Amino acid sequence: MAMAALPAEHLSALLAAIAELRRAPRWVTQWIKASPTSCHARLLLAKIEIMRAWSIRGESALRDIPIRRRVEFSQVMACGYQHLVDLADEDASQAMAFAELIHCNVVVGLGGAKRDEWLDHVMDVAPFHLPTLAEYSRGTQARWGGSEEEMFGFSSWVTENAPVGHLAHSLAAGAVIEKAFSVSDEEVDILWLARDVGDEALAEWTRRSLYKWLEATPSTLQDRLAATQQEREVGYGIVCTERFALASYLSGAKHEARLLLTALRGRLRPYPWSQFAPYVPLSGRWLARNHRVERLTHDRVCRDSGLDPRSIVR
User: Fold this and answer.
1) At 279, is the pLDDT very low, low, confident or very high (cuts 50, 70, 90)?
2) Which of 46, 160, 217, 273 could connect to 294 by a Cys-Cys bridge, CB 3.0–4.6 Å?
3) pLDDT, tens digit, for every residue of 136-161?
4) Are the C-beta atoms of 97 and 44 separated by less than 8 Å?
């Protein structure tokens, strides 16, 4: 019952967090034995297999992964996929199952050409289900077989059609950050990236999505941020604020970036900030272990935006 009451984005994060625990396989076995029809138990069972597959694959580029691990990755992912297919066949209202099916399709190709069919189905049973949209968006990225045109086209469709105030508008911020990833490497400075990636058209596109998410206008943005931050602190909204802060900076929407960075107050997750951190040869491991790499990026972005990070981080 507790899981059923969670918003989709929270349920997705919770399943991932539990699936990574060492005792999760034993727990889910006992859960299914006690409640064989529990959709959440079966979702967790599939998620455990998917997370195990990723631990086998690792984070290296596919070309750098030994063939044995590639094969094992696909085989374990297929186990999770089959659990999801069984659940979706029995209960077509389980949008989270379709989100994970799309994930399996994007990263391994399971399900063939069904990705669009699954998205259309979820839009019918749970319109703008954020985990489903996020997984589908992954598949539009160039590194997963899509293209920049496809990625921005899908994000634009979401921005145009999602209700005002919906968290799905954050996909636009993700597209801007992904664009920066696509032109960066370990040697590229984020300050130069912002000058290379950003332009007025991209900045305006980012602003439009930001204003739709916050139900704001340029004149009310600061007040809307102040009014919403407290209520969003325990929700996915803080993730949206973080993504839009970085995306606004990268796209060239500097005024919005300053307001978002100030509202964020230095509350950061390692991803995506750490991906843009400057190279730190000797202290890198210590910084990463103490969650400091992302702060290097944050502080440089703040200073380049005319903000003193010491005055906003509290």
Assistant:
1) low
2) 273
3) 999 999 999 999 999 999 999 999 99
4) no
| Tally of residues, the chain | 314
**Identity at 186, one-letter amino acid code:** E
Q: Does one domain contain both 185 and 313? A: yes
Question: Which residues have C-beta within 8 Å of that of residue 152, sequence separation ≥ 6?
Answer: 175, 179, 205
Residue 7, in any domain of the structure: yes
**How far is Cα 114 from Cα 3, in angstroms, rounded to an integer?**
27
Q: What is the largest CA-CA distance in the chain?
A: 58
Alpha carbon of residue 289 to chain centroid? 22
Domain check: are 30 and 103 in the same one? yes
CB 102 within 8 A of CB 122: no
d(CA 254, CA 212): 18
Reported pTM: 0.91
Shared domain for 172 and 313, answered yes or no, is: yes
8 and 43 belong to one structural domain: yes
| Vertex 108 angle, CA 104 and 113, to 5° | 75
Are both 105 and 209 inside the same structural domain? Answer: no
Residue 117 in tokens: 């069919």
How far apart CA 219 and CA 225 sit, in angstroms, is 12
Residue 65 CA to its chain's centroid (Å) = 24
**310 and 173 in a common domain:** yes
* C-alpha to C-alpha distance for 132 and 95, rounded to whole angstroms: 7
CA neighbor of 13 nearest in space, from 34, 52, 38, 43: 43
Domain count, the chain: 2
Residues 28 and 3 sit within 8 Å (Cβ to Cβ): no
Distance CA 162, CA 190 (A): 31
CB-based contacts of 93, cutoff 8 Å, min separation 6: 125, 126
Range of the domain at 199: 164-314
Other Cβ atoms within 10 Å of 169 Cβ, number: 24
Residue 281 above 90 pLDDT? Answer: no
Whether residue 269 sits in one domain with residue 233: yes
- Phi/psi at 53 (nearest 5 deg)? -60, -45
Instruction: Tell me: do 83 and 4 sit in the same domain.
Output: yes
